[in-house]
Design brief:
Structural class of chain B: alpha/beta
Number of helices of chain A: 9
CATH topology of chain A: Serine Threonine Protein Phosphatase 5, Tetratricopeptide repeat
Largest sheet of chain A: none
Number of strands of chain B: 5
CATH topology of chain B: Rossmann fold
Largest interface: A-B, 21 and 17 residues
Helix content of chain B: 40-55%
Strand content of chain A: under 5%
CATH superfamily of chain B: Phosphotransferase system, mannose-type IIA component
Strand order of the largest sheet of chain B: 1-3-2-4-5
Largest sheet of chain B: 5 strands, mixed
Oligomer: heterodimer
Strand content of chain B: 15-25%
CATH class of chain A: Mainly Alpha
Number of domains of chain B: 1
Shape of chain B: globular
Shape of chain A: globular
Chain lengths: 204, 137
């Protein structure tokens, strides 16, 4: 996972643009089963990272990930802030500067486990974890970036059939079924954006 | 958003109230102050960074700082995001202090009042938390 400053900066720009483009949709998804602020919160988070992108991009990848995580924690708020923050901060803390792809996937697994502990959630609870687990599994199989992106997006869609057991949506019980989870949706958009970058820049 | 009204006896366990609503957080803190007096460090955090409904880590951190006591801090939260953000805020203050911060599994208003009453008598953090958590079903 040798990413230089140019890569990190480009990924921040792309992720921010993607969240901005889908912010309204994320808000609508969240209105159906939550409090409707996921789009606003994610836009605020990605904008905060964007503002700091030059400083962040100058850091080695692990430190950059940790810093992005902290910025997201401090800016997204709600439940999504600590979840995305935990994912990136744990990833950054666990990653050696010269980590190869296999080490990255192993560290990602640890970071996802930390997200699960933070949210006290597991597979099938209708959260962003329902995207993170299949993405990690696809990476473990060394799937092509395009394949991982498809996997992320279809995993997010599959949360529509799930009944929420964590977060605000859990209060709705069976009524949460039939709506895609907004956290899973934003997570899939970000994963697909990152994969799209790798597909173009670094075909495997 | 957070508000402070630090007590005079910083040796007592501090109480922090975290709600998605600034009005709820402030109202609960006001109730604690009126019912228990000012023998405990007390602070609240409520609302997102823009003052709307929600919780955010920076506000909670500021409240913990305000209510900080060497005896520790007990935090009372309403919904899930408040709990997650409070745990994150505590961790970001570093292991030394995080080890003396507990996010209580207790009702926000009743928990905070009972905990503050217990804390004002000089009880330990463990005792304050246990007293509040007895209120949980």
């Amino acid at each position: 996972m040798q990413l230089d400053a140019e890569d990190i900066s480009a990924l921040i720009v792309l992720c921010r643009a993607e969240i901005d483009r889908h912010g309204e949709h994320l808000g609508l998804l969240d209105s159906a089963i939550g409090d409707g602020d996921h789009g606003t919160n994610m836009r605020r988070g990605l904008n905060a990272v964007f503002t700091e992108r030059e400083t962040i991009a100058a850091l080695p990848l692990p430190a950059a990930l940790e810093r992005i995580g902290l910025v997201l924690v401090m800016s997204i708020g709600g439940a999504a802030g600590p979840l995305y923050g935990t994912l990136l901060m744990e990833l950054g803390r666990g990653l050696a500067p010269d980590a190869n792809a296999a080490a990255f996937v192993a560290t990602l697994e640890q970071a996802i486990a930390a997200v699960a502990r933070r949210g006290r959630a597991g597979p099938g609870d209708k959260t962003l974890l329902d995207v993170l687990y299949p993405v990690q599994a696809a990476m473990l199989e060394r799937s092509a970036p395009e394949r991982i992106a498809d996997c992320a997006l279809s995993a997010a869609r599959s949360t529509e059939a799930m009944q929420a057991r964590r977060g605000r949506a859990a209060f709705l019980g069976a009524r949460s079924v039939g709506h895609e989870d907004p956290g899973a949706s934003s997570c899939a958009l970000l994963a697909a954006t990152i994969c799209g970058y790798f597909a173009e820049r670094r075909p495997s | 958003m957070s508000n402070s009204s630090a007590g005079q006896r910083q040796s007592n366990v501090g109480i922090v109230i975290v709600s998605h609503s600034p009005l709820v957080a402030r109202g609960a803190a006001d109730m604690v102050r009126q019912m228990v007096g000012d023998g405990v460090p007390l602070a609240w955090a409520g609302g997102n960074a823009e003052g709307g409904l929600g919780t955010h880590v920076a506000g909670i951190q500021a409240a913990i700082e305000t209510a900080w006591s060497e005896a520790g801090v007990a935090i009372f939260v309403d919904l899930g995001g408040a709990e997650t953000n409070s745990e994150m805020a505590a961790e970001l203050l570093g292991p030394a202090r995080a080890g003396r911060i507990v996010v209580c599994n207790a009702p926000l208003v009743e928990g905070a009042v009972v905990a503050a009453a217990e804390a004002s008598g000089g009880s330990s953090l463990a005792k304050v938390v246990a007293t509040a958590e007895e209120l949980s079903p």
